[in-house]
Design goal:
The protein is mostly helical. It folds into 2 domains: 85 residues, Serine Threonine Protein Phosphatase 5, Tetratricopeptide repeat (Alpha Horseshoe); 50 residues, no CATH class. The protein is built from 5 helices and no strands. 12% of the residues are buried. Helix 2 packs antiparallel against helix 3.
């Protein structure tokens, strides 16, 4: 994975991440650790995706992108992973997660709006059917 590395102390661009900045001599050990952690999670995501463990791959890619949001390879792999995850349940899972984590999530409908509209229509049809067909 390619990182655009800038020294946090002198703001100069660094070609290769080493323990010290070649320009100012500042300690870059923590930055190197973050880059290594992102690389490790990306490699774990690749292994999980090759084994068709899509949820595990998505979790590792989430960590990778949290550490480096500009990582194009991780975003590309995440697109493929999302494609292979269950397309029927993914929107509902994401909606529930949004309701749980957003500060105004409790004001959102319990289900996706499209699904809520379908449920409303189904309830109306069931109510109409029950009035037409009364048990004897």
């Amino acid at each position: 994975m390619a990182f655009a590395i800038t020294c946090p102390l002198c703001r100069r661009r660094i070609a290769d991440l080493t323990g010290r900045c070649p320009a100012c001599g500042g300690d870059l050990g923590a930055l190197a650790g973050l880059v290594e952690l992102a690389d490790r999670h990306f490699n774990d995501a690749v292994r999980a995706a090759r084994s068709a463990r899509w949820n595990t791959a998505a979790e590792h890619l989430a960590v990778t992108l949290a550490l480096n949001p500009a990582d194009a390879e991780a975003r590309q792999l995440l697109t493929k992973v999302r494609y292979h995850q269950d397309p029927k349940t993914l929107p509902d899972r994401l909606w529930r997660k949004a309701r749980a984590h957003l500060p105004y999530g409790d004001r959102l409908p319990r289900t996706l709006p499209k699904q809520a509209a379908l449920n409303h229509l189904l309830e109306e049809a069931t109510r109409r059917w029950s009035t037409i067909r009364k048990p004897t």
